[in-house]
Design a protein that fits this description.
This protein is of the alpha+beta class. Helices cover 61% and strands 14% of the residues. It has a five-stranded mixed sheet.
Length: 203
């Protein structure tokens, strides 16, 4: 909070300087303002990467503890099944890494946000995805709403071309905010959100 207040004060000072200074000084203040803003955005990006890395390490440590617990209890079949489930999730994360950088970064960031809320994102049909800016825009906003009301239930995202479908079992309410292009409805105690033409969506 303290650092944010200092940054805002610096931005305000540079903005006032750019507004009040004479012509040549105004150009200098504007250049400093742009440089400061770009550094601020860059540092926020670094902080997000560090947070994502920390959360992933914490998740892997928890998964190892779960496997260790099953082995100590002698439930080798359950441990093997859990390892298979985790291997599938890791393979899914590898598919995310093959997407364009903007998409890969956004999906990893959304995954970290879901973990913060105690839920998990599952991706399906990534190989069919046609990465478009507006699809990512809709996905980001739809998932943020779904994550906030998921109450720990996993969220399945199925891609197909330039469209997607979100499914969350056990949700009893719809998101409150309207997102242009996203349609929400219930089906047998499952919250479903869709974007794009249904015939384009896999699954």
């Amino acid at each position: 909070m303290k650092h944010t207040a200092i940054r805002l004060a610096v931005l305000l000072a540079l903005g006032v300087g750019a507004d009040k200074a004479h012509h040549l000084w105004r150009i200098l203040f504007l250049m400093l303002l742009v440089l400061y803003l770009s550094q601020w955005v860059q540092m926020r990006g670094y902080a997000m990467v560090v947070d994502i890395n920390r959360r992933q390490r914490h998740r892997y440590a928890n998964q190892l503890q779960v496997i260790s617990g099953w082995l100590q209890l002698g439930k080798y079949d359950r441990a093997e099944r859990y390892v298979s489930e985790m291997a599938a999730i890791i393979a899914q994360q590898g598919s995310v890494g093959r997407l364009p950088l903007r998409w890969a970064y956004s999906l990893v960031r959304l995954d970290a946000l879901a973990e913060r809320y105690g839920t998990m994102l599952l991706w399906e049909g990534l190989n069919t995805l046609e990465p478009r800016y507006w699809t990512l825009w809709g996905l980001d906003r739809a998932l943020r709403q779904a994550i906030a009301i998921a109450d720990g239930h996993p969220i399945l995202v199925t891609f197909g071309g330039t469209s997607f479908i979100l499914r969350v079992d056990g949700i009893k309410r719809l998101p409150t905010k309207h997102i242009m292009g996203v349609r929400w409805f219930w089906d047998d105690h499952t919250l479903i959100g869709s974007w794009g033409r249904p015939q384009e969506t896999a699954g």
